[in-house]
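User: Okay, second chain of the day. Same drill as before: sequence in, structure tokens out.
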Amino acid sequence: MKTIAISILVSALCLLGGSKGYDDPYLDDVLRIRIINFYGSADSMAEDVGTDEPSGRSDDGAFWGHSFIELKNISGSYLQVGLLGFGNNSCMTIGCFSGIKSGGNPVYGSDGIWYNRESWEPSGQGFLSLESQSLTTTIDELGRAVIADIITTAGNSYYDLFTHNCTHLAVQIWNAVAPSYWILSPTIAAPYTLRTAITNKAGHGTNVSFNCGSTVGYVDGNPPSLHTTW
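Assistant: Same drill. Structure tokens below.
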């Protein structure tokens, strides 16, 4: 009876931890995760008017920077991460954005969590010319479940400049699964502060490349669903 109780307690702690922080020796890593932050110099921000349009795609061209999560499937098989799946050795990005327009009209529900929207940037204006900072680790199936829960929790997909922007979401996901020595302050709220926080961590990367998946879509609704056409 005592053995059963201990097993139940350990299982509960693992679910609460949701990351490799407890270093479960029985679970293999299935995802490589990176938090990536782009931030420009003062010169590159000369035209800013204070908007936090993460991808530099606001109507007036204003630009601050962008923070997001990149995942790579290292499991050897197809994996689902929330509402979207991808194959072995493939990547996807997860970011928080303000809404888009279609035919000049706002697309309802398009503000919030997006898969692979960062893939739009190479074809136009954006953050790719700026310096980037990153942290990278690997996570197991429990970590994957934690990320999926964040993405699919009803009401979690929205954009607010001050309370739920690209940096808020990236830090939230990263902190939920990262090792304790790489946890970032949950009060970080903008790419320029995230830049300092990442570069203060031993083992950080600079100007890393990243890859997106081919499916671009936003999360909306209750229960949340993935929208890939608009």
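The two ends are 56 Å apart (CA to CA).

User: Thanks, on to the next one.
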